[in-house]
Amino acid sequence: MHATLSAAMVSGELLGGAGGGDSEKRMLEVANLLREYGVRLRICEKNTGRPSYAFNAIQREFLPFPYKPPPSTIQDLTSSLIH
To answer: What pTM, to 2 d.p., does this model score?
Structure first.
């Protein structure tokens, strides 16, 4: 599993879990904001040349729900290998 997605999850727990009430929902919202707009996409771009996470269809299918990044940030691994 990508350390990037895990780091966003932990940050989401720290930042979103303090609100009480529906803390799991808030944690996922914060984690997805970090995954979509945070510094980790810049690291992906540095490593792959594209500002998106590269997963193939099987990897995307088996990622646990809390670790799935927003669809707008995912690039199919096969298309990333072509470009």
So the answer is: 0.69
